[in-house]
């Protein structure tokens, strides 16, 4: 997550180069990766854009859900099939995020 001058700018997810072409689609010429996002007890399917073919640009709604979540899971397609990454953002200092990024949590 990147914030500048007290405002949220963008957030990316780096898969470490493990992604394959499975699940790739194109919208207006922009390559996308279909991902399944689980935030606590809720899940949704997203189409995230590739940035320079190295990492995925997360949407702001997902970022807002993640910062207030206890559990965040992300399923992505890799060369060897679906992989799930699990994170525990619980304990994140929400006051600091609000101050640094002007961003508040939002339940999905």
What does this molecule look like?
The structure is a single chain. This protein is mostly beta strands. The chain has one domain (2-90). Helices cover 15% and strands 48% of the residues. The chain has 2 helices and 8 strands; from the N terminus they run E-E-E-E-E-E-H-E-E-H. Strands 1, 2, 3, 4, 5, 6, 7 and 8 form an 8-stranded antiparallel β-sheet that branches. A hairpin with a 2-residue loop joins strand 7 (72-78) and strand 8. It is globular, with a radius of gyration of 14 Å. It starts with a strand and ends in a 7-residue tail after the last helix. The model has no long low-confidence stretch (mean pLDDT 85).
Quick recap of the structure?
By secondary structure, the chain is mainly beta. Helix content is 15%, strand content 48%. The chain is globular and about 40 Å long.
Topology readout:
Blueprint (H helix, E strand, L loop, with lengths): L1 E3 L2 E7 L10 E4 L2 E10 L2 E10 L3 E4 L1 H8 L4 E7 L2 E7 L6 H8 L7
Antiparallel strand pairs: 1-2, 2-6, 3-4, 4-5, 4-7, 5-6, 7-8
């Amino acid at each position: 997550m990147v914030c500048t001058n007290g405002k949220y700018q963008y957030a990316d997810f780096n898969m470490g180069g493990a992604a394959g072409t499975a699940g790739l689609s194109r919208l207006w010429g922009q390559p996308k990766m279909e991902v399944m996002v689980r935030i606590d007890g809720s899940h949704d399917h997203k189409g995230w854009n590739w940035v320079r073919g190295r990492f995925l640009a997360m949407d702001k709604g997902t970022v807002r859900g993640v910062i207030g979540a206890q559990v965040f899971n992300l399923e992505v397609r890799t060369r060897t099939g679906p992989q799930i990454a699990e994170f525990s953002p619980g304990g994140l200092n929400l006051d600091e995020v609000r101050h640094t990024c002007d961003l508040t949590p939002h339940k999905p």
